Amino acid sequence: MTQFQKRTHRARLILEAVGRAYPTAWTAGDHFRSQRGPGFDWPGWCYLPLAGAYAVVSGGGDNRVPILRSHHVGILGALMAWRMGQQIMRFDPALYRPLVETPISGDLPTALLYRLPVWCAYIEADLEFDGRRVHGAWVHLEHDQRGDE
Hints:
Distance between the termini: 46 Å
Number of helices: 5
Structural class: alpha+beta
Order of helices and strands: HHHHEHEE
Radius of gyration: 17 Å
Mean pLDDT: 90
Number of strands: 3
Shape: globular
C-alpha cells in the first residue's frame, strides 16, 4: 500500500456493516433524540438510552428482540453514539503495556466518566480474551429510563 491509498479503520468498517444491517438505525436515533422532552428525557452525557437501540433491533412496537440477536442492542447502541464523533483513542506503546498490566483495585473515580468529551469512543487494544484477539472496544455510558443508571 502506498501512502496515498485510502485506508479506513476497522471500527468504521463495523459501523458501515451495522448500518447496512439496520438501515433505519441512524435516522431513528436522530428522531428519538429530537423527541427528547418531558416524559422522554435523559442526561446529556448519554447519546440515547439503549431502549432506543432495542426499538430499532426489535422493529418497534410490542416486538421483542430474539435471544440470538440480543447482543445487537448493545452493539447498535454503542455505534449510534460513536457515529456522531467517531473518536478513536490509541495509547502510546510506552504507556499502553503498563496501563493494561496495572491491576484495578479499590474505588474508581466514576464521576469523571460523566465528563467525557464524546458520547462514545473506540479505544484500540491489543489483547487476548478467552482465546480471541481483542482489537478494541466502544465505551459509552447508559442511562436507564427506569431510573437505574
